[in-house]
Specification:
With about 300 residues, this protein is mainly alpha-helical. It has helices at about 15-30, 50-60, 100-110, 115-120, 130-145, 155-170, 175-190, 200-205, 265-275, 280, 285, and strands at about 35-40, 50, 215-220, 260. The chain has 11 helices and 4 strands, in the order αββαααααααββααα. It holds the Pfam family Transpos_assoc.
Amino acid sequence: MSRRWIQNPNRSADEYLDRIEDFIEFARRHDPGATRIRCPCTRYNNTLWETIENVEFHLVRNGMIETYSIWNLHGEQLDNVSSSNATRVDNVEPIVDPNEQVMDIINDAFPFASTNINQEGEDDVPTLMDSVEFEQYEQLLKNANQELYLGCESFSVLTTIMELMHGKLKYRMSNLCFNYFLRVFKRMLPKDNCLPKDHRHTQKVLNDLGLGYEKIHACKNNYMLFYKEYETLDTCPICKESRFKMTSQNRMTKIPQKVMHYLPLKPRLQRLYMSTHTATDMRWHKEKRVDDDVMRHPTNGGAWK
């Protein structure tokens, strides 16, 4: 059966809605007792298990993955697998090489790096990356190619760091807890391993990927930020509270009473548009949005337009 309807941009069309119902019936038929199935919408990409009702809603709202023409994660057998010896693939996760993912991230962070290397030594061609950026790129490449320990082929230093930091953020692990497990892992691994010893050293490696943040001192009572024209002040002009905590006179560094972490928007938008993985989604509202006078998304609103 042709499944070109998946690529139909008009998700309110009768054909699309009918085929969604066919898909739901197909999933029910191949797993009769299931209350939750994988959601193949463009947002969750078969990674989230949802109720059948929610899956149907997501498919109408977000659309189905355009490349998901063989519903193997919902019980359909692949063409090259016979029905007699086929194995269930319901719980099989897609195999993704973490080292390849890391290289993709580096290439997204430094899209002109390869051009810069090719142009090295050519005086007439402008350099697209400055020396600092190129040093950062080379350091990341070094960490991406360096084995975690001698003979480790599965994980590089950078891959390991990114996997651990992903888990830290996903499960809301504190820095103290993260440091504890890093020390445990470091003792488990061979003595010549290159695993960072704590969270601070881990962050140093990832800082070269960009998308950092700025620390801006704030008033203890939240009246103002010590920023721009107030950057040099030591007391709040409104409540007269000191900018810094009281510490011993021998201490060389001052500790601020309160700090705000500012995440600049512009470099994040630039990264989203530069990355081959997210640029398509950033252009969706212009290229693939269905404009049929039905309010489904903020881009359909008058304020957006």
